[in-house]
Model the fold of this input.
Amino acid sequence: MNSPLSSPLTVPQLIVMKKEGRKIAAMTAYDATFARAMDEAGMDVILVGDSLGMVVQGQKSTLPVTQTDMVYHTQCVARGVTHALLMADMPFLTFQGPAARALECAGALMQAGAHMVKVEGAGVLTENVAYLCARGIPVCGHIGLTPQSVNTLGGYKVQGRGSQGAQLTAYAQELAEAGASALLLEAVPAPLAADISQSIAIPTIGIGAGASCDGQVLVMHDALGLGGRRPRFVRDFLSGRGSISEAFHGYVQAVRDGGFPMPEESYSG
Ligand code: KIV
Done:
């Protein structure tokens, strides 16, 4: 099944999908073969996540992932993708410093085949988002649980409960104003993610952020039931299906028809 719009899906079309209430199905991939299978299943967005540090390299966090790693895996994934929009993560310390370095690293990911880069954080970092956007690099923001800040956050915990919610809403608005084209919300209570999604014109893509986001993303290994501890927002799409390809189709379908995530796969306020 092809993407519902033209191929490859473009950044402006993501915004059209939000306006038309069409859910965006996204998943991580790290190589050409899995990316091709996702693409053929109709995945709208394929993310080369820096989660590759954990699920591919076996690291304890995403912090050791390098720019060279991200460029390599983006090149691999790009070779498997025809229809989907390809997003690549900017790894730790490539975006948090001087704007010129952020531009150089983001540019290298675009030259490796990405259509958009994803960056963690807001606040003082929003300036760099504006800098990249003004130079023709589409940016997806990422707020809530930002794994590159795991040492500051004290673990992989739900973010935005109570008074923290207003801060996340303000971050979402400032990133949208800075020119971001999409916003990933990770491990955020579902009611807060719903409010944020309504308050900005760019699409939100949630992971552990409830059904009201404009799209959903899962780490591929989680969606295939691999790995040990399973957070509540993860569903094993391979279970009960005969192949990985069917699992990807099942995921795309469930995101599109609102069957994923269910309330018990989300966090309450
Ligand atoms: O790196 C990653 O896999 C991510 C997830 C939140 C999807 O950013």
In short: The chain has one domain: 11-265.
